[in-house]
């Protein structure tokens, strides 16, 4: 074997060994990060005020939080109705109900960011493909019962917000495929919540500062809500859901209102 071949073989072996070592380092780092996040998750579930949890946690008061439960219950009813309707359409070719389509395509509320307004729509369960792993949603820890409905740690994405007038309600197309640029949309996690400051109330949506897949800024931010359509506005609420809507399918009414 000549010297040139020996050098070539050595270079190949060295490159191979370095590649294996680098891969092992990445796996080790990934495992360590996953272990850290798991420990942090458990600590925050147990007590978000603990040193081990180590988050910025500024909860609202219990009385204010009680109003958020309306949003939790209404949003749950809508997304499960949507999920079942999509399943029936796919499996049995049953048409998607028009009354539900109108709800899904109307904004639930409007938030403000940098003097611009964004209409926020309920995000279907089927579209929740990205979870931003931030902590500290301001649900009072005392309002979490037996670990159920704990929004403090990794709350699900509930809302998709696009610039007012842009007509991007997500709907049947995943929000990731809408082709929107950074700053043209925001994502909301958990239900809207109320803060009472100086005897005045202000509603907020909580979500990533600048969502952009895994490349954005997932640090949470409070977005002030400037207008309501659901619950407190002309849009959907439980009385309308059960007393005013004409249902296409009787089983939908029974599931939502019985």
Would you kindly provide a written description of the structure presented here, covering whatever features stand out?
The protein has 5 helices and 6 strands. With 258 residues, it is an alpha+beta fold. It folds into 2 domains: 54 residues; 192 residues, no CATH class. Strands 1-2-3-4-5-6 form a 6-stranded antiparallel beta barrel. Strand 1 and strand 2 form a beta hairpin. The radius of gyration is 23 Å and the shape is globular. About 3% of the residues have low confidence.
Key traits:
2 domains, globular, 37% helix, 6-stranded antiparallel barrel, 5 helices, 258 residues, single chain, alpha+beta
Write the layout of secondary structure elements.
Elements: H1 3-46, H2 62-92, H3 98-104, E1 109-113, E2 116-122, E3 157-163, E4 185-197, E5 200-210, E6 217-228, H4 238-243, H5 250-257
Antiparallel strand pairs: 1-2, 1-6, 2-3, 3-4, 4-5, 5-6
């Amino acid at each position: 074997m000549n010297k040139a071949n020996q050098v070539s073989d050595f270079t190949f072996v060295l490159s191979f060994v370095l590649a294996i070592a680098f891969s092992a380092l990445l796996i080790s780092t990934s495992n360590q990060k996953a272990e850290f996040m798991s420990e942090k998750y458990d600590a925050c579930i147990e007590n978000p005020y603990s040193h081990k949890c180590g988050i910025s946690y500024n909860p609202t008061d219990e009385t204010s939080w009680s109003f958020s439960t309306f949003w939790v219950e209404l949003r749950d009813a809508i997304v499960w109705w949507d999920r079942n309707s999509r399943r029936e359409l796919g499996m049995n070719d049953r048409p998607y109900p028009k009354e539900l389509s109108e709800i899904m395509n109307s904004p639930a509320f409007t938030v403000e960011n940098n003097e611009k307004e964004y209409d926020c729509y309920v995000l279907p369960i089927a579209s929740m493909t990205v979870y931003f792993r931030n902590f500290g949603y301001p649900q009072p820890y005392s309002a979490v019962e037996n670990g159920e409905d704990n929004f403090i740690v990794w709350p699900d994405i509930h809302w998709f917000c696009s610039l007012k007038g842009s007509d991007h309600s997500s709907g049947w197309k995943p929000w990731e495929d809408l082709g929107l640029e950074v700053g043209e949309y925001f994502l909301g996690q958990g239900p809207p919540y109320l803060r009472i400051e100086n005897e005045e109330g202000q509603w907020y949506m909580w979500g990533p500062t600048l969502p952009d897949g895994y490349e954005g800024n997932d640090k949470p931010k409070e977005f002030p809500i400037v207008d309501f359509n659901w619950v407190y506005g002309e849009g959907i609420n439980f009385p309308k859901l059960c007393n005013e809507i004409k249902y296409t399918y009787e089983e939908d009414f029974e599931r939502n209102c019985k």
